[in-house]
Automatic annotation (TrEMBL):
Stated name of the protein: BTB domain-containing protein
Species of origin: Bambusicola thoracicus (Chinese bamboo-partridge)
UniProtKB keywords: Ion channel, Ion transport, Membrane, Transmembrane, Transmembrane helix, Transport
GO biological process: action potential; protein homooligomerization
Membrane topology: Multi-pass membrane protein
PANTHER family listed in its UniProt record: POTASSIUM VOLTAGE-GATED CHANNEL SUBFAMILY G MEMBER 3 (PTHR11537:SF91), VOLTAGE-GATED POTASSIUM CHANNEL (PTHR11537)
Main location: membrane
Amino acid sequence: MNFGRGPAVVLNVGGTRYSFSREVLKDFPLRRVSRLHGCLSEQDVLEVCDDYDRERNEYFFDRHSEAFGFIMLYVRHGHLRFVPHMCELSFYNELIYWGLEGSHLDYCCQRRLDDRMSETCTYYSAEEPPGEPGAGTRGKARRAAAAAEGGKWLERMRRTFEEPTSSLAAQVLATVSILFVIVSMVVLCASTLPEWRAPENRSVEEQSRYTAESVREPSG
Protein backbone atom coordinates (compact mmCIF):
# COMPACT_ATOMS: atom_id res chain seq x y z
CA MET A 1 0.00 0.00 0.00
CA ASN A 2 1.60 3.24 -1.15
CA PHE A 3 -0.96 5.69 0.18
CA GLY A 4 -1.32 6.83 3.77
CA ARG A 5 1.06 6.67 6.69
CA GLY A 6 1.46 4.57 9.80
CA PRO A 7 1.73 0.83 10.36
CA ALA A 8 -1.99 0.36 11.02
CA VAL A 9 -5.06 0.94 8.87
CA VAL A 10 -8.44 1.70 10.45
CA LEU A 11 -11.72 0.79 8.76
CA ASN A 12 -14.77 2.68 10.02
CA VAL A 13 -17.89 0.84 8.90
CA GLY A 14 -21.11 2.55 9.97
CA GLY A 15 -19.41 3.94 13.09
CA THR A 16 -17.66 0.70 14.13
CA ARG A 17 -13.86 0.78 13.84
CA TYR A 18 -11.55 -2.10 12.89
CA SER A 19 -7.76 -1.89 12.92
CA PHE A 20 -5.50 -3.94 10.64
CA SER A 21 -1.85 -3.97 9.71
CA ARG A 22 -0.91 -2.98 6.16
CA GLU A 23 0.36 -6.47 5.40
CA VAL A 24 -3.02 -8.01 6.22
CA LEU A 25 -4.81 -5.84 3.64
CA LYS A 26 -2.90 -7.28 0.69
CA ASP A 27 -4.49 -10.74 0.93
CA PHE A 28 -7.65 -9.75 2.80
CA PRO A 29 -10.58 -12.09 1.91
CA LEU A 30 -12.89 -9.14 1.11
CA ARG A 31 -12.06 -7.75 -2.33
CA ARG A 32 -13.12 -4.19 -1.54
CA VAL A 33 -10.84 -4.07 1.50
CA SER A 34 -7.89 -5.67 -0.29
CA ARG A 35 -8.18 -3.03 -3.05
CA LEU A 36 -6.97 -0.44 -0.53
CA HIS A 37 -3.53 -2.04 -0.65
CA GLY A 38 -3.00 -0.92 -4.24
CA CYS A 39 -4.21 2.67 -3.84
CA LEU A 40 -1.62 5.25 -4.88
CA SER A 41 -3.55 8.47 -4.28
CA GLU A 42 -6.51 9.85 -2.37
CA GLN A 43 -8.58 9.66 -5.55
CA ASP A 44 -7.90 5.93 -5.73
CA VAL A 45 -8.95 5.58 -2.09
CA LEU A 46 -12.24 7.43 -2.62
CA GLU A 47 -13.11 5.02 -5.42
CA VAL A 48 -13.07 2.25 -2.81
CA CYS A 49 -14.52 3.93 0.31
CA ASP A 50 -16.79 6.90 1.07
CA ASP A 51 -14.31 9.11 2.94
CA TYR A 52 -10.75 9.13 4.24
CA ASP A 53 -8.96 10.76 7.18
CA ARG A 54 -5.30 11.19 6.30
CA GLU A 55 -4.19 12.13 9.82
CA ARG A 56 -5.61 8.99 11.43
CA ASN A 57 -5.25 6.81 8.32
CA GLU A 58 -8.93 5.93 8.73
CA TYR A 59 -11.20 4.78 5.91
CA PHE A 60 -14.94 5.38 6.18
CA PHE A 61 -17.59 3.10 4.68
CA ASP A 62 -21.23 4.17 4.91
CA ARG A 63 -22.52 0.61 5.21
CA HIS A 64 -24.47 -1.53 7.67
CA SER A 65 -22.17 -2.00 10.67
CA GLU A 66 -23.90 -5.10 12.04
CA ALA A 67 -23.85 -6.81 8.65
CA PHE A 68 -20.12 -6.13 8.36
CA GLY A 69 -19.66 -7.60 11.83
CA PHE A 70 -21.22 -10.86 10.62
CA ILE A 71 -19.02 -10.73 7.52
CA MET A 72 -15.95 -10.33 9.75
CA LEU A 73 -17.05 -13.44 11.66
CA TYR A 74 -16.91 -15.25 8.33
CA VAL A 75 -13.39 -13.90 7.71
CA ARG A 76 -12.24 -15.17 11.11
CA HIS A 77 -14.16 -18.43 11.45
CA GLY A 78 -15.30 -19.40 7.95
CA HIS A 79 -19.06 -19.38 8.61
CA LEU A 80 -21.36 -16.77 7.06
CA ARG A 81 -24.96 -16.42 8.21
CA PHE A 82 -27.69 -13.81 7.99
CA VAL A 83 -28.03 -11.00 10.49
CA PRO A 84 -31.16 -11.65 12.60
CA HIS A 85 -34.14 -9.44 11.71
CA MET A 86 -32.40 -8.10 8.59
CA CYS A 87 -33.86 -8.52 5.12
CA GLU A 88 -32.09 -11.31 3.23
CA LEU A 89 -31.87 -9.19 0.09
CA SER A 90 -30.35 -6.29 2.03
CA PHE A 91 -27.72 -8.58 3.52
CA TYR A 92 -27.03 -10.04 0.08
CA ASN A 93 -26.49 -6.49 -1.19
CA GLU A 94 -23.89 -5.99 1.57
CA LEU A 95 -22.14 -9.20 0.51
CA ILE A 96 -21.90 -8.00 -3.08
CA TYR A 97 -20.53 -4.64 -1.95
CA TRP A 98 -17.71 -6.23 0.05
CA GLY A 99 -16.87 -8.71 -2.70
CA LEU A 100 -18.61 -11.89 -1.54
CA GLU A 101 -21.28 -14.02 -3.20
CA GLY A 102 -24.34 -15.87 -2.04
CA SER A 103 -22.34 -19.10 -2.37
CA HIS A 104 -20.24 -18.02 0.62
CA LEU A 105 -23.30 -18.32 2.87
CA ASP A 106 -23.89 -21.44 4.93
CA TYR A 107 -26.16 -23.90 3.14
CA CYS A 108 -29.26 -23.12 5.19
CA CYS A 109 -28.85 -19.40 4.51
CA GLN A 110 -28.31 -20.05 0.81
CA ARG A 111 -31.68 -21.79 0.73
CA ARG A 112 -33.30 -18.84 2.49
CA LEU A 113 -31.79 -16.42 0.00
CA ASP A 114 -32.89 -18.53 -2.97
CA ASP A 115 -36.43 -18.76 -1.58
CA ARG A 116 -36.59 -15.02 -0.97
CA MET A 117 -35.38 -14.23 -4.49
CA SER A 118 -37.88 -16.69 -5.96
CA GLU A 119 -40.72 -15.12 -3.97
CA THR A 120 -39.69 -11.65 -5.13
CA CYS A 121 -39.47 -12.71 -8.78
CA THR A 122 -42.81 -14.53 -8.57
CA TYR A 123 -44.50 -11.48 -7.06
CA TYR A 124 -43.28 -9.12 -9.77
CA SER A 125 -43.83 -11.51 -12.68
CA ALA A 126 -47.34 -12.67 -11.72
CA GLU A 127 -49.00 -10.29 -14.19
CA GLU A 128 -46.19 -9.97 -16.73
CA PRO A 129 -47.27 -10.81 -20.30
CA PRO A 130 -45.16 -13.36 -22.20
CA GLY A 131 -42.37 -11.88 -24.30
CA GLU A 132 -39.42 -12.98 -26.34
CA PRO A 133 -37.41 -16.04 -25.25
CA GLY A 134 -35.05 -15.22 -22.42
CA ALA A 135 -36.82 -11.96 -21.60
CA GLY A 136 -38.45 -13.50 -18.53
CA THR A 137 -35.10 -14.57 -17.07
CA ARG A 138 -33.55 -11.17 -17.67
CA GLY A 139 -36.65 -9.49 -16.26
CA LYS A 140 -36.45 -11.60 -13.12
CA ALA A 141 -32.82 -10.68 -12.66
CA ARG A 142 -33.63 -6.99 -13.05
CA ARG A 143 -36.54 -7.22 -10.63
CA ALA A 144 -34.42 -9.09 -8.11
CA ALA A 145 -31.81 -6.35 -8.36
CA ALA A 146 -34.53 -3.70 -7.98
CA ALA A 147 -35.89 -5.51 -4.92
CA ALA A 148 -32.40 -5.62 -3.44
CA GLU A 149 -32.02 -1.87 -4.02
CA GLY A 150 -35.41 -1.29 -2.40
CA GLY A 151 -34.36 -3.34 0.60
CA LYS A 152 -31.13 -1.37 0.76
CA TRP A 153 -33.07 1.92 0.77
CA LEU A 154 -35.37 0.71 3.56
CA GLU A 155 -32.36 -0.47 5.54
CA ARG A 156 -30.72 2.94 5.15
CA MET A 157 -33.88 4.63 6.41
CA ARG A 158 -34.01 2.30 9.41
CA ARG A 159 -30.37 2.99 10.23
CA THR A 160 -30.91 6.74 9.86
CA PHE A 161 -33.64 6.71 12.52
CA GLU A 162 -32.22 4.01 14.83
CA GLU A 163 -28.42 4.35 14.56
CA PRO A 164 -27.28 7.99 15.07
CA THR A 165 -23.65 7.14 14.23
CA SER A 166 -24.39 5.36 10.95
CA SER A 167 -24.23 8.46 8.71
CA LEU A 168 -24.17 12.25 8.63
CA ALA A 169 -27.93 12.40 8.01
CA ALA A 170 -28.54 10.20 11.07
CA GLN A 171 -26.36 12.49 13.19
CA VAL A 172 -28.24 15.59 11.99
CA LEU A 173 -31.61 13.93 12.68
CA ALA A 174 -30.49 12.88 16.16
CA THR A 175 -29.23 16.40 16.91
CA VAL A 176 -32.50 18.00 15.77
CA SER A 177 -34.49 15.52 17.88
CA ILE A 178 -32.41 16.34 20.95
CA LEU A 179 -32.88 20.08 20.35
CA PHE A 180 -36.65 19.62 20.15
CA VAL A 181 -36.62 17.71 23.43
CA ILE A 182 -34.51 20.41 25.13
CA VAL A 183 -36.76 23.22 23.85
CA SER A 184 -39.87 21.35 25.01
CA MET A 185 -38.38 20.86 28.48
CA VAL A 186 -37.41 24.55 28.72
CA VAL A 187 -40.90 25.69 27.69
CA LEU A 188 -42.51 23.24 30.13
CA CYS A 189 -40.34 24.46 33.02
CA ALA A 190 -40.82 28.12 32.10
CA SER A 191 -44.60 27.70 32.02
CA THR A 192 -44.54 26.98 35.77
CA LEU A 193 -42.86 30.30 36.63
CA PRO A 194 -45.06 33.00 38.28
CA GLU A 195 -44.14 35.51 35.56
CA TRP A 196 -45.59 33.19 32.93
CA ARG A 197 -48.67 32.25 34.96
CA ALA A 198 -49.63 35.83 35.92
CA PRO A 199 -51.15 36.78 32.52
CA GLU A 200 -53.03 33.49 32.47
CA ASN A 201 -54.41 34.09 35.97
CA ARG A 202 -55.49 37.62 35.05
CA SER A 203 -57.26 36.30 31.98
CA VAL A 204 -59.11 33.71 34.07
CA GLU A 205 -60.09 36.33 36.68
CA GLU A 206 -61.38 38.72 34.01
CA GLN A 207 -63.40 35.95 32.42
CA SER A 208 -64.88 34.99 35.81
CA ARG A 209 -65.73 38.63 36.59
CA TYR A 210 -67.40 39.06 33.21
CA THR A 211 -69.43 35.90 33.72
CA ALA A 212 -70.52 36.98 37.21
CA GLU A 213 -71.61 40.42 35.98
CA SER A 214 -73.57 38.85 33.15
CA VAL A 215 -75.43 36.65 35.61
CA ARG A 216 -76.32 39.61 37.87
CA GLU A 217 -77.78 41.71 35.02
CA PRO A 218 -81.60 41.60 34.98
CA SER A 219 -83.07 39.98 31.96
CA GLY A 220 -84.75 42.35 29.51
